[in-house]
Structures are given as structure tokens and as C-alpha cells.
Amino acid sequence: MIDTSSQPRVLIFDTTLRDGEQSPGATMTHEEKLEIAGLLDEMGVDIIEAGFPIASEGDFAAVSEIARNARNSTICGLARANYKDIDRCWEAVKHAKSPRIHTFIGTSPLHRAIPGLDMDQMAERIHDTVSHARNLCDNVQWSPMDATRTEADYLCRVVEIAIKAGATTINIPDTVGYTYPMESAQIIRMLLERVPGADSIVFATHCHNDLGMATANALAAVEAGARQIECTINGLGERAGNTALEEVVMALRVRNDILPFRTGIDATRIMHLSRRVSTVSGFVVQPNKAIVGKNAFVHESGIHQDGVLKNAETFEIMKPEHIGLTVKNIAMGKHSGRAALRAKMKEMGYDLAENQLNDAFVRFKALADRKKEVYDDDLVALMKDQETSATHDTLQVKRLRVVCGTEGPREAELTLSIDGVDHTTDATGDGPVDAAFNAVDMLWPHRAELQLYQVHAVTEGTDAQATVSVRIAEDGRIATGSSADTDTVVASVKAYVNALNRLIERRKKSAPGDDVKSVRYSDA
Ligand code: KIV
Ligand code: ZN
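Above: inputs. Below: predicted complex with zinc ion.
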């Protein structure tokens, strides 16, 4: 193990709750945001970008409460380049022990054209808004959005203005995921060489993954002198996402021989955070995702299995336990007791209160009756399901019977509790899932359109649980839902109903389209 204590520190800036939450359908509830922020804080994230306070009342409330609760992390809010945004941001983050205002404006030719500012007018706007932010807060981050497509001379000019106006961190966003590692490094090097005062501030790198190079671009920027990486758990984020926190943290650790930098992250918390973010965002992690994918540590081929059994290092560059993945995927069965379940859950990062454990135990026993062996992944799915079926939900699946097969007809009989009252109907469809969804729609008519329906097997075998994810959209509001069950049709209906319950919550909170995703970043 290399002693990294004397190595330069790279700050980890997590924007799962801001840029990550901007992914269509990834909206999290207030409680979920607080929980994720708490976990990021415990994990050692230096700066948490908690939201975009001007975007909605909900975002403001979440950033304020996260700021109040934070123990160690700096809490940052996003603001466009205008006084109203910056003031609102400060109102939210000022409660933190360590607050930060992050203000930005698009500086590339395409972005300058949107507010219709010429180069000089934009330079003036940057000076005024960064000075205003700095008068409110000692810790100010400024970003020239679309920096990687901004003319080099102009980028140097505006970065110098922002530093003179008091910015303490300059973030270089590759907003559209356009750059590549050599260029990402060159931009940081150029700014360090050409901009007066560049050595007195921290340069950050903020990369998007449109060409699959976000992690490589971020690490190249660090080699060139950036000392803050902006990233999200599971690489969540707009379009193809952002640099993944788990990838940069593990790359810096595994290749510390050529990337001699340290972070303050407790990597053993990665897996738990990855699962929680996947659950609350409704974004399933692809099986072959680096570090946190289901297959990231699985060796299928005989040659690999043989090699790993003789010496794990033959085919493994890191150990599962380094990211908090339990080594022993010990199967639990119907004879396992509450104590074993509690211990297993703890090992997997779930610190359950007594009532949560009781609920989990009942569900575990029911699952163990249907499934010979209950694996870690089954327990994760079970926990996920426990959370997505809250007793206060408007809609609850009470009973489902389906008829299907080669002969037809495909029918479903469904009892749904709506605001505590049971309603039953029959419906037909192209298959059992279609028939069951039609039954839901008959009992609770709505205008939402089903945009995505995905089924995954949690483990191997025909008795495996299926996890189902759905995404629906209504008037610009997007809601996701998920559920798991050994019966795919049951999981499908529960996931659909879960999405509808989330839609109901979103209808209560906002007018159509009135949420963070509809705020135009260019309206500065
Ligand atoms: O990608 C981007 O440019 C951003 C900015 C708001 C920093 O997320
Ligand atoms: Zn971004």
C-alpha cells in the first residue's frame, strides 16, 4: 500500500443532486436528496452541489436543509449570472458551516449569442456577478459554460476577470462532452501559464460523457494542474451523464503510481451510494458499468475463474471490498433468522431501524419461501421495493390475477386501492403486462405516456426476481418507478403504480413543466 499522505489532494465535488438530477426522469424527493447528501458527506466528498435554488421552491428547500445538516462537506448551490439567482442561492447555502456560491455563464460563441451579449458586455457581466457573489460569500466558484468550445484568448480573458472579481475556484466545463484528454489537459495548462493570478485559485474540471471520455478528460485535467474534479455517483447526468465519482476515485487509487494524487473519499462507501442513487433516481446501473456494475467483479470464463481462484490479481486490478462490495455473497435461506438478516444488511451498508428491519424480515421470509437462495442482490432489490411501496401512497396494488399463454385471451383482474378504497376491474391486452397496465389505467385514468419499460433478472435461475423500471411523462413532468418480484407481471404493475404515485407527488408540487429541468440555463 502506497503512503499517499504527502501527495497533492484533489477535491471531489459531487453534483449528483444538481447536474445528476437534471437527467430526464431522475427527479428525487426532498427526503431522498437529504439522504444522499448525508451519505456523500459521510463518504468524504469535499463539496456537494446540492441544487439550483432559483429553479423551484423544492430545490431551494432541499439546498437549505442540506446546508443546515452538513457536517464536513462544503455545500454549494448553482446560480446563473444575475443578482436574483445569486441572492437566492446565498439564501439557501448560507446556513452551511462552509457555504459556496457557484455562478456560471456560457462563454462560447454559440452560448454568447443566446443572451445576445458581445464579448465586452459579457466580460462586464462576469465581473459584476462574480463581485456580487463574493460580497455575499467568501467561497465563490465561477464556470465559463462550454469552456472547451470557447476561443482560447477569450477564455483566458474572462477567467482573469473572474479571478480579479474574487472567484476562488474556476471550473472548466466540457458542457457538451466534446473535448478529449490531450485537449482537456492543454486548456488547464494554458490557463495556468497565461492567466495572472491563476496560481492563487483552484481549477476544477467538469466533464460530460457524450463521447465516453468524461473520466479520461477529468484525469488528464488533474495531471495538468486541476485540483477539483466535478462528478456524480454512477455518472448520472444530462444526456450521457457526467464523470463518474467511483471511476475517478478508483483510478486515482489503482493507478496511483502514475497519478500520484489523493482524495478524501472513503471508497468502501461507493457501492452503497451507487445502489441508493440508482434506487432513488430510478436509473438502473448497466451491468458492465465500470466499478459499480453488477458484472464488474464477476469472472465468467473458465480461464478467468481458474486464474482468479489461484491468485485474484491475475485478472483483478482492485478488490470488491475496496468499494464496499461484500466479498462473501453468502446465500441466505428460509432458515436464516433476524440477527443474520440484520448482520447481512449492515455488512451491505444498510443501517436499519427496528421497524425497517421488521418490515424487511417479513419480506425476506416471503421471498425465501419462493426462492431457494436469497443473494445480496436479492436483498438490495428487496430493500428497494420496501422503499418504493410506501403505505401513504395514493395508489396501492392489492391483488392481481392474470391469464396468459398461447391460446389467449390475455386478461388481468386487478384490485387497486385508491386513497384507501379498493377498486377492482378486468382488462385485456396484447400480453399479461399490457392487460395489467390497461387495468391500472381503467381504475385510475391519466394522460401520462409510458416512455420506458425495462426488465432485468436480479440473479440467475428461473426463480430469480425480476426488477422492472418504468418511466412515464405527463405535460413535461417525468416520473420513474421500479419494483422487484419473482413474478415479472407483479413487479411490472408495482413499478407502473410506483411511477404513477411519484407523478401524483410531482403534480402536487409543481405546475406543468414548472421544475428544475424547465429552467433555461441561458436565461441569465
Ligand atoms: O455542464 C455544464 O456546463 C454545467 C455548468 C452549469 C457548470 O453543468
Ligand atoms: Zn454539467
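Residues 19, 104, 143, 145, 171, 173, 175, 206, 208 surround 3-methyl-2-oxobutanoic acid (ligand 1) (CB under 6 Å).
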